[in-house]
Structure formats: C-alpha cells, structure tokens
Amino acid sequence: MCVDTTQLLHGLSQGDGQNVELLFEHVYTELRALAASKLKAERPGHTLQPTALVNELYLRMSEQSRVVWRDRSHFMAMAATFMRRVLIDHARSKGAERRGGGRPLVSIDDVLCLNKATDPTELVALADCLDKLASLNERHACIVEMKVFGGLTVDEMSSLLGVSPATVKNDWRTARAWIRSQLNPGS
C-alpha cells in the first residue's frame, strides 16, 4: 500500500488521530536519521539515543491537535523543532545541578555549527536566547530553528514562510548577530 505523507498530514490536520501512527511509521527512518544527526552534535556520552528521541518526539507531536500540516517539509521542520525542545529539556534537567554562578561565555559559531559537540549549558543558553528572540521577532527565531535544527535550505524556509529568499538571508544575518550579542555581551 502506497501511503502519501501529505495525505496523512492533511488527515491529521482534520482530526484523524489514526494518521499519527501511520505517519510516524511512514517517516520513521527519516526521523531516526534526523535524531541521530542531532545527537551527533551533542556532547559525547549523551544519554539519549536516537530511538528514544524519536519516541519522545512522537509523544509530543501526537498531542498537537491544532496544527495545520502543510506538507512533508513543514512536518520535518516541526519535527526538528520538537527534537530541539526535547534536547533542551534534557540538557536543562541534566545541567541544572551542575550550574552555578554566572553563565559562561558561549561561542555562537560553536552553537550554530551542528557538526561540533555542544555543551548542555550552550544548548540551554541558545534555547533561552531563542525564546527571547521569538518574543521580539518570531520569524527571526523561526528561521534560526529551521536552519540550525531543521537543516532547511533558504529556498525551503522561503517557501514555508512565504517570503523571498533575500528576506530569509537578511533575517538570518540579523538573527545571528542578535544571538551573538546576547550570548556574549560586550564582545
């Protein structure tokens, strides 16, 4: 039986709860690969495994009843965002007892470059920064999430957001500079 992801997403948007399981079965391999790539960017010895991350993603995304899913790209971008939130929550719980005093300086280049291991405090700092950015400019925060955590291209982001590629590039530069100033004030 050939299953179309977009049809499953549209059914899910219309309240067909059975589509959640079918959808995850259909895209599980991609989600697990995405989870594995996210975990490679984490610190060595991370306690979450790709399967556990996808399972947590399933639990969180199956609770989303008011989302209108547009297409596979939109779903994967949201999946990346939810994975980021799972990793941030995990980092917060693991790092809470280790944190003391002031926050260390964080390199924006290290945080935004997913091929480098990221310390839990860096992830928490980035999450806090993204929350603050979202309150100031939601589109800028969305672009950072889609680029850094979703791996979307400028054209994909442009299509999802309904803005030109030039606007996406400009927003990315602005958001990155703002995050840099927040993570390393006075630098």
Task: Report the C-alpha radius of gyration, rounded.
Answer: 17 Å
Number of domains: 1
Major sheet details: none
Count of helices? 9
Distance between the termini: 57 Å
Question: What overall geometry do the principal axes of the alpha carbons give?
Answer: globular
**Which H/E pattern describes the elements?**
HHHHHHHHH
Q: Find the count of extended strands (DSSP E, 2+ residues).
A: 0
Structural class call reads mainly alpha
Low-confidence spans: 99-107, 113-117
Percent of residues in beta strands: under 5%
Percentage of helical residues? Answer: 55-70%
Mean pLDDT: 78
List the helices and strands and how they pair.
Blueprint: H1 5-13, H2 18-40, H3 50-62, H4 72-95, H5 108-112, H6 120-136, H7 138-149, H8 154-161, H9 165-183
Helix pairs in contact: 1-2, 2-3, 2-4, 3-4, 4-6, 6-7, 6-9, 7-9, 8-9
Organism: Aeoliella straminimaris
Domain RNA polymerase sigma-70 ECF-like HTH: 4-184
Keywords: Sigma factor, Transcription, Transcription regulation
